[in-house]
Amino acid sequence: MRVKAVLKSLLFAYGITGLFLLLLAFLLFQFDLGEGPVAAGIIAVYVLSCLLGGFMAGKILRKDKYLWGILVGLFYYLLLVTVSFAVQGKWDMTVSHAVTTFFMCLGGGALGGMLS
Q1: How far apart, in whole angstroms, are the C-alpha atoms of residue 35 and residue 61?
Q2: What per-residue confidence (pLDDT) applies to 16?
């Protein structure tokens, strides 16, 4: 039951990511946004997706909500890094960017779990 709930929440988080990235791409082409707003938008997408995934996990499991949210954020980050590495064939992140993204994903998931 717990594994199924985490997987369902993770799939939901990646669905939200896809929708928000499509919206961000639309805004990029419509308004010719610069690099700064796009980078901020991507960060917001990561955090919001983890927050919503953690919220869903907390709603489903109803006990130790923030821990399940952290787990969703952790798996979100691991899948994000794995897919990024597989597509590019090399590590394309600085260590500081990787650590920052890691804590944003965990924090978003934990906050979502706490708010559920």
Answers
A1: 39
A2: 97
